[in-house]
Design brief:
globular, Rossmann fold, 4-stranded mixed sheet, 420 residues, 7-stranded parallel sheet, Dihydrodipicolinate Reductase, domain 2, 2 domains, homotetramer, alpha/beta
Chain lengths: 420, 420, 420, 420
């Protein structure tokens, strides 16, 4: 056991020059060098301070990943926040060499099924492949090379790339395959080997190809985005076949986190939520991608879903996400909740959330990697349900109530400590 | 058991013409007549809809109480909300006869230790008594007469009167008595029999006298205010001696409810709360009383306490409650939370809560009465810890986290159902 | 002069059972009966209190109008605000007979060029006419009958109906006609006599037909909506030909009023407005109509226009208007203004406006009628520029700065007093 | 005239290491070096862009001043904003040498009548003087030396030090002296020569001594604070005697600026403002001083005064200013305005202002200096009424309406251009 602890585990970030990944990379570098503290990290919170030995140390992670854009991790973090810098420049300078080293390791990703908007941003020289299967083969060989060359014990692959449009190819596999593993496998193989260019809308999407490449090697795949990735029956199937683990969808960082915290109060106090309006404005690269209606609809659905599930009925809801350039990474959300109390009296709660998107998301990426590695060391495979509090649309979720989700995490960690 | 169910239980409201009591009275009347639904009532929420038989029916309650002011329950609810009515006038008209009948049953209360501001509002002809013991004797006889004349099985006494100043007499008993029951009894008796006029600041306070009068008769005392009432060692002592039950302090209705819902999120996500500012404005009679600094300090302490206990450290906090006449019962709170996330980046959450104070509090008074009666029927005496989610400063609380408090309630109710 | 003052003037409301018209009708009735004061009326403000004799008395107005929907003025005002009533019910009861009398006088309007959404709401039996000219003839005869039967001195026609889609027929006349009066007249006549059903999109729109019917009789036409109505060259032409007066567009009541008040501050202090986001939510009938994208775009353009004109440059702007049923007439707007100050430092202003749409608009309709009648008595015809402060997109406006617009009104009123 | 333009004018800042002065010094340095643009400067706004030659160039100013604290201008600007930096560090680095040069020129000020809180912050070695007259003599000699040694044509003295408590000595002179110049002079001389230590509460206050020292030399005194400074009859008297000029009180930068912009709208639209609540939180050195109730009351009065004067009646108002350390210079204000519209319907406007105090104030200090110098070159002495838009409590103000105040400035500038 001890020996294994000394080995490093790979953290493979998809979209590694994006805001979330770049901030996570900077943060990990700063943590490893003792230049920042645990603020914002769930695994370093007050509840876990006496059981921290249950988690791998930050020094045990070694970062690699892929991109479709040129630029650099350094540039991303240095301009994060736009006109209002989000990260202290001295911290960035102190980690500059680490960022450059990681940048030099990044390899080309894929834009299959990512939509026109993402494709238009791809200025790296991406290999042309005739079928998704060829792309998977390339992705696998990239990851394996990374593991081998760096002597890593295993890999945790985290998708933090921009949101893809809803994908019809995977939907069709799920509908036709049902829960029949054999059928699913054969449908998947067929789609994988179907010739189609990387710009084709009928291709299997990048997020699913990354996930498949990771899982068929027994690694862990975390989908931090609302993109298709690895849906449940496929994830369970591959976990069983390959001994891998997975979890998603869509990191719960800001407005939706607030919803999952506040909605249970409205339910418990039996307030009748008549309407819940949420307007989000921000100006980073994600906003550019979400400006494309195809990409946006996947996101809005993910933000909107949980209310009805928590409350037990569906109030009128409205969620918008709009690009306002001057805000950069500072996502500002205004929510207006109109509810009835006793005797039918209408009342209102409004909130404004002013958070830096990448700063909120990046520590969760690190927490997820740390917890996923903890699970691996405990021999846990399959869907990592105990991570539900980290996601807007947790796969296999029995509840969207943040407090209950958090209790599940707490119990799992404490169980892990007790060797359970 | 069935027979007992058919008997009625008394609900004795202290401050019965105040906004909270009057709204509770109207609401109970409307519930009994099927003129309103369960919105705003915890015991009627989604979680409990299949176990509603565990609770007494609303028809099993019979209301009485005391006051120190003239006026009427009808006038209170008709003008609730000031310029912006809080309750539909047709509902008030439909219950007008009930309100008048209850009004006619109200008896004079006491203003002992309530401070100059409350004393100045007392325009009923209140009996003059030379010592607190005489006041207790009168209060007891009033309650007993109510029980006897109406054939009630027992009594639940709820304090919903205005906030008293902090009381030195009770503080002194607690300090000197420690946990020594005998000593506490003797100190209490001495204070009870010490001659002092009702306007004396050294008198035992009204809230404690009401509580004592209730508990020594084996009844339940609920302190919905931050006033002294029945502090823990006395409450436990009297519960044991007289087989009664009790719980307090200070109903958790608006801004503090929000704090107990949001602060656990900041703790769990390991955000560093640097400051939490809460400004409350409203214009009802409570606001008049809280305009007196002596009364206000008790309230602010109650609103401010829980943050440090949830977070595990004390951020800078600021809580104000100010009287703005035009708002009437519509309490508007603005909270500004300044916190650090990952890499030390500062972010902010602001919320504005626009709620009608009495409409938020009244259903909790009914829930508490219903749950207290449920406990009585299950033979439970002493401190009713499972009610902590209803209070800003729950007596004996092990947590201020609303979600955990609510789970305790949920488990208790489900246990009650299972005959546990 | 005195004799004329004793005569009554007609106030002809288009969309008379809508929220704005119904509230204006109730308000006028209450003012005439001395049951409400001048709050919310510009002509009764502090600046004009010593010159009130310059304005006609409220008793001098006599209301009529047209509609396309059944229902009643009484129902509109009684349910205004939805779950949160906007008008005291005793005031509505006190004026109930007046409202019924006016309701009985209402005649059918027209839905020409009003779009599918408005057409779907039209449940009155509207006459079928083969060409706009026939419709104009009917509208004229309705108005003339109203004037004759009630011995009115003249008529002020105010359009407060729902927003129409942008109209191509009028656009084409303006483009082809330029400033050539003869050509404009002939193009107008041609369009007027072109056979087209009332549901045809190529028809001249209702708002323009109402305006023409009013102006060709020498009356005053006020367009309180962003609908096409009477554009400038036509308005000037008809004013000259028929001695009539006109003004529009789109009453400035809430969020846009705020913009025209705040933007000059940003300009004067030389703050660089980087972005101005305004989200509007409400749930009245207007919201239903604006849910149709065709109708909405006309409205949003009107709300968005003035910022660039005040600031001297165009910041990024975003304006949404969304239907949230529970809010009824209570329009809630959240605006977020992101601006740079000295040394490029970014700062922000947010505001939330919670106003009742009809309550804000109705007094302006009465003010406009009163001021238009004042102008008539002073012999003023043509475009009533001094009314620009009342409009989001004032016709012929030289400024959108509310303070400057108001000064123009102030000077005009004072000039009127001095016999100028 | 041309020759004079080439000479430099002194800008003497009182409290030169405070946030406002330090930011103004940095800003002037950056302007002189062409490293920042005119954003935030009134004299560089859109209205004045074609008449900029009427103003002196930024290069014509030469900065000096006094302090009572050690530290440095550089440290002040580098830490401005606390955890959230307010100024780009590259700009600060670029001007570092200039700041050091000015720092080296600063001389000791005085803390006479500044209250205990300010006295406790004074860590410079301040001369001990037995009477205010001695202090004035020292201040004069410091200013004169600055003028002589640097060959300056004249001096503009701006008070940007912390707010003093209300001063009884000056109040008494004003009450006894009335408008009798002779009497005022003799009372002033008496107070000036009365022996009293610098810590005495009965001393003439620092702000008045600075003002007197400036004005008796024919220079201009601008009081950017609510401190006593030079009240009207004294200012007019000294202007006449010495040919000097003056203006105050209290720079209008944030929440009060908003009030003077919004209140005229409420007046013009005849809304009945029932209450206006303003809560301000911030954490810079000013906040430390305002934490002392003696200093705070002067400030709150200045923020609260104008509403009644604009509206024509006094609504209920509440203004708080509280110190929240984490906010640093970022002053956050929440205002809640509760008003009645037509038919008595209550509505509300809330706004949150998030501005950096020094960044808002500093450009106004530069504008005032520039405009004061423009006035001097035009030969204007006495009270500079045209500057009223810059002040919360403008001396001799006929209006608090920002738009009207700004028009007065605009007209004055345009008149200046036309040689009027």
């Amino acid at each position: 056991m001890k020996k294994q602890n000394k080995e490093k585990t790979g953290l493979w970030l998809i979209g590694a020059r994006g805001g979330v990944a770049s901030t996570a990379i900077l943060g990990l570098s700063a943590l490893q060098a003792g230049k920042t503290d645990g603020t914002g990290l769930v695994t370093e919170n007050y509840d876990f301070k006496d059981v921290s030995s249950v988690f791998p140390a930050w020094s045990e992670f070694f970062v690699g990943g892929c991109e479709i854009r040129t630029g650099s991790i350094y540039d991303t973090v240095a301009t994060l926040g736009g006109i209002h810098p989000a990260i202290r420049s001295d911290l960035i300078q102190a980690c500059k060499r680490d960022l450059a080293a990681i940048d030099s390791r990044l390899v080309p990703g894929t834009i299959r099924g990512s939509g026109k908007c993402i494709a238009s941003l791809a200025d790296m020289d991406l290999p042309t492949e005739d079928a998704p299967a060829e792309t998977v083969a390339r992705l696998e060989s990239q990851m394996k090379a990374f593991v081998d060359q760096n002597g890593l014990s295993s890999l945790i692959v985290v998708n933090v790339s921009s949101t893809e449009p809803v994908n019809a190819a995977v939907q069709s596999i799920l509908e036709k395959g049902g829960n029949d593993g054999k059928k699913l496998n054969s449908l998947w193989d067929k789609a994988l080997n179907k010739k189609c260019s990387q710009s084709s809308e009928s291709s299997l999407p990048a997020s699913s190809l990354y996930g498949y490449a990771a899982m068929k090697n027994g690694w862990t795949f975390i989908n931090f985005t609302p993109s298709t990735g690895v849906p449940i029956p496929l994830g369970d199937l591959w976990s069983e076949q390959y001994g891998s683990a997975y979890m998603g969808f869509d990191g719960k960082t800001g407005e939706t986190l607030m919803k999952s915290v506040l909605a249970p109060m409205f339910r418990n106090r039996n307030f009748n939520v008549m309407s819940w309006v949420g307007h989000n404005i921000f100006g980073n690269l994600d906003a550019v991608v979400l400006d494309d209606p195809a990409n946006k609809s996947a996101k809005v659905a993910s933000k909107d879903r949980l209310l009805g599930e928590i409350l037990g009925y569906r109030p009128q809801t409205l969620v918008t996400i709009e690009r306002i350039n001057s805000l950069g990474d500072w996502k500002t959300a205004w929510d207006h909740i109109h509810f009835q109390g006793f005797l039918g009296t209408p009342m209102a709660l409004q909130f404004t959330w002013e958070g830096c998107d990448s700063i909120l998301a990046a520590p969760l990426v690190l927490d997820l990697s740390r917890l996923a590695l903890t699970a691996r060391r405990r021999g846990q495979t399959g869907r990592l349900d105990f991570l539900s509090s980290f996601f807007k649309s947790p796969q296999g979720a029995s509840t969207h109530d943040f407090a209950r989700q958090y209790l599940a995490l707490y119990d799992w960690v404490m169980g892990a400590e007790n060797g359970k």
